[in-house]
Amino acid sequence: MRPLPDPGVPPLTWLYAPGDRPDLVAGALVSGAGVIIVDLEDAVAPDRKDYALGATAELLSDPAPGPAPVHVRVNALDGPRAAAELRTLAGLPGLAGLRLPKVHGPADVLRAAAWATGRARPAEPAAAAAVGTTPPGATATRTPPATAPAPVPALYALLESALGVEHAYAIATAHPAVRGIALGEADLRAELGVRDEAGLDWPRGRAVVAARAAGLGPPPQSVHPDVRDLDGLARSCARGRALGFLGRAAIHPRQLPVIEAAYRPTPEETEAAAEIVRAAAAWPGALALTDGRFVDPAVVAGARRVLALAGHMTRRRTDPV
Q1: Whose CA is closest to 182, among 4, 37, 25, 6?
Q2: Which residues partner with 178 through β-bridges?
Q3: What is the value of pTM for the model shown?
Q4: CA distance 303 to 45
Q5: Using CA atoms, how far apart are residues 161 and 98, in angstroms rounded to an integer?
Q6: Residue 11 and residue 41: Cα distance in Å, rounded?
Q7: Helices in the chain by DSSP H: which ranges?
Q8: Using one digit for the tens of pLDDT, what is the confidence trace for 243-291?
């Protein structure tokens, strides 16, 4: 498996590409996005899904399919395709993560993890136990598997329903392989009947709090569906950043520079963070800066994250393509 990104420097951009369009996937791989998400779900018509899975499996047979990590969004876990997709993709050397759509609760994550390791058949719950199969008076025995189960790939749960939002923390802590959660806002808007951005503030805050409480990185924002509305995308990113998100999913390469600009630390933020780190190095513990700001260990940790992200973005801009 490809190593997971440094959790201290999370990606800012997550670019979707339809799995049945290898040409678009190839373009996404060299787009400069932090993570490429090959989509087998919404972006692929029903009669193209078998082809999309085969093309994606072929791509991920290469341990290094591109310069960025490649994730795959499988189909809905309660549908007929997800189990086979997870079994097919989980062990491939080029896979960096699996995105699980429409996760309603921790049981969905456990079922997906079981499918990925081959521990459960598609019709079985992940933690199912045999009932009524041992004769009375007999001692139940377990037959060990012939081989050790495969490790579970990194899992990213998408919360796209009211129930999923309510279970956000339980989902985020359902399995050690969960590396992140995020909202799927198109379905969530439809279910909640939300008419404006303010109506999603509470679910967004819930996702941010649940992720951080579970020890995960800040979630990225959901996609901005109008690829031509770059001004609207910038305004939406600014609001998302204020709510605690970090980075955003995109559906077109032209959205990437806008997202990066919105989430990249400004020179003023970088200098303020550097001042905090310098002061903390000179005076360990809580202290007050010359401008009156109070600094404690949590503030210092936040400042170090800003500097790490600023340094990472500078390296990305100077790295050869």
Answers
A1: 37
A2: 155
A3: 0.83
A4: 45
A5: 19
A6: 22
A7: 22-29, 49-60, 82-89, 106-117, 162-166, 168-172, 185-192, 201-213, 230-243, 256-263, 267-282, 297-318
A8: 999 999 999 999 999 999 999 988 888 888 888 888 877 776 666 666 6
